[in-house]
Specification:
Structural class: alpha/beta
Distance between the termini: 27 Å
Shape: globular
């Protein structure tokens, strides 16, 4: 399992964030959706990039995106992350090696994924645009650990919430669910940013 899963926003059945994670990769892309997701990622990289590393107590050394199971190449997410992470971090690529979507089962399937380079001894950050069941992002993270990565964390642009789920209903009724976006709110801890490490 990942060291940590970091959702930048939550999406219900119809809200804007749900539309945006589809719209940014449209043909043509929805430019307003691209701008809104870019703002989320910008604030994360500026204000909370260090939070993942402090929370997990290890620096992120490699960033990969969850590849398309439908064969879309390049995937818009690959282009999106190049604006926020250096080439030194974009030093590997997760690949889909499983069966086409119509022929594979549901659930976590690490064997459906591989890497273009050995992730051994790396702390791999797996970036996903939308987390529904989380099976693809979790599968990539697990496969990274199987291949010898010292750690694997997940960053998702939007975490989908099932509105018929009782936990979701309880959370949706709280004040936290109705608060506007606050860039100072830490998406890693869901609260205060973790304290600096001793060597910082």
């Amino acid at each position: 399992m990942p060291e940590v899963v970091v959702p930048l926003t939550y999406a219900g059945a119809t809200p804007q964030s749900r539309r945006d994670v589809y719209g940014y990769k449209g043909d043509p892309p929805n430019l307003a959706a691209v701008r809104r997701l870019s703002i989320l990622m910008y604030y994360f990289t500026v204000a909370h990039w260090g939070c993942i590393q402090r929370f997990t107590r290890m620096p992120v050394t490699s960033v990969v995106t969850v590849p398309s199971g439908r064969g879309r190449k390049p995937h818009p997410l690959e282009e999106f992350v190049t604006h926020y992470f250096s080439k030194d971090l974009l030093n590997n690529e997760a690949t889909f090696v499983g069966q086409p979507r119509e022929g594979r089962g549901d659930g976590i399937r690490p064997d459906d994924f591989g890497f273009t380079h050995d992730p051994k001894d790396q702390h791999v950050l797996v970036v996903e645009d939308s987390w529904v069941s989380g099976s693809n992002a979790l599968s990539v993270a697990i496969q990274a650990r199987r291949a010898g990565a010292m750690g694997a964390s997940v960053l998702c642009l939007a975490r989908y919430l099932r509105e018929d789920d009782q936990v979701t209903k309880r959370w949706s009724a709280t004040d936290a669910a109705r608060k506007p976006f606050d860039p100072s709110f830490c998406p890693v801890t869901r609260g205060e940013c973790p304290p600096p490490l001793d060597n910082e």
